[in-house]
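Re: the 78-residue chain
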Amino acid sequence: MLDKEIILSHSLVPRHEVLAKEDADEVLKKYGITRDMLPKIYESDAVVKVIDAKKGDMLKITRRSPTAGESVYYRLVV
């Protein structure tokens, strides 16, 4: 059993959010890409499991960086 609190609060785990369909469509339009062009993340990933993301969901991952401040990445759950 995965402990949600431990996984999500770990210092090396960035914030993961499941995007609503409308928000995901906006991101794709903004960057002129299709869903299959996104980097992938497996449904078996621990964070994907604890946030209850499903195949086909788009995730917004926000990472903190001492040099860049915050960086946003998008992944497709497969």
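Strands lie at 15-18, 40-41, 58-65, 69-77.
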